[in-house]
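Exercise 7b. Backbone tokens:
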């Protein structure tokens, strides 16, 4: 009898695993209602800015190498659905810290920078399909920054619907975002393309965990304007690769990590003495659900 049960087990378990690997999953990267999430993030960025070789030598500037490490913790409280299936997620910044170096020496960090972010709240409102309806800010966020933040987040998330994949399949999600520049009405045009590949599916109890490879490209452009409203021109391209683990049944990202390379040109208007600058850098980001 024991041998028969073992034989059945050897047949059933591989079948369950194979079924999980071939099942088409709809993966939503927004949290489902009625849960509280604690997330820790870390960002390491290095950036070198050098004069453009084609620039006027008379306006040449020495290279500047900057590195910055940011650690932050957030609490997301997801509420219940209403009669229409709509719900909200309230994201609170619990803590944040910065370390900056410039050309190998400690760099200045405004004393109140952390204080301005800790306690800030961003609330995302979703419809019954998980699409963002609006983004609200509170906690004394600068109105211009708040307007840029809301437009950016709404545009970005609205362009990333749930994705349906089986193991080995990929899908590419394009996005076009116009970002308001703080302190002005100028818009920066950002276009991106993100490719998600479902590499495997595992289980945490009854919950299905989707493991994804993620690759994306992003371009940011802002031509110099003829007025002081647009004093800086940008032409920046980023390329990213990473991975993501998503709890499909709870709609939460358990872990994500990406490495990004950044290359671009920054140009100032004719009224300034700052030469065109080339920028190159790398950025690694990670986020983990802590509980």
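Sequence design result:
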């Amino acid at each position: 009898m024991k041998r028969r049960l073992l034989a059945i087990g050897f047949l059933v378990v591989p079948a369950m695993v194979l079924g999980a690997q071939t099942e088409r999953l709809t993966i939503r990267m927004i949290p489902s209602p009625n849960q509280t999430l604690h997330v820790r993030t870390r960002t390491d960025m290095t950036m070198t800015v050098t004069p453009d070789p084609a620039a006027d030598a008379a306006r040449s500037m020495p290279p500047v190498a900057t590195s910055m490490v940011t650690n932050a913790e957030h609490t997301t409280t997801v509420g219940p659905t209403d009669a229409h299936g709509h719900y909200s997620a309230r994201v609170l910044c619990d803590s944040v810290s910065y370390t900056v170096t410039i050309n190998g020496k400690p760099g200045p960090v405004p004393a109140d920078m952390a204080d301005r972010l800790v306690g800030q709240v961003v609330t995302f409102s979703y419809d019954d399909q998980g699409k963002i309806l609006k983004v609200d800010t509170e906690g004394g966020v600068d109105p211009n920054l708040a307007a840029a933040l809301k437009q950016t987040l709404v545009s970005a998330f609205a362009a990333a619907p749930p994705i349906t994949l089986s193991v080995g399949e990929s899908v590419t999600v394009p996005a076009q975002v116009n970002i308001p520049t703080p302190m002005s009405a100028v818009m920066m045009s950002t276009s991106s393309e993100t490719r998600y590949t479902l590499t495997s599916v595992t289980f945490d109890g009854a919950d299905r965990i989707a493991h994804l490879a993620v690759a994306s490209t992003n371009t940011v452009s802002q031509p110099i304007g003829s007025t002081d409203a647009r004093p800086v021109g940008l032409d920046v391209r980023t390329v990213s690769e990473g991975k993501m683990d998503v709890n499909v049944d709870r709609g939460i990202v358990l872990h994500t990590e990406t490495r990004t390379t950044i290359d671009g040109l920054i140009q100032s208007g004719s009224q300034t003495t700052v030469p065109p600058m080339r920028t190159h850098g790398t950025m690694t980001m990670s986020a983990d659900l802590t509980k």
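Instructor comment: The chain has one domain: 25-289. The radius of gyration is 23 Å.
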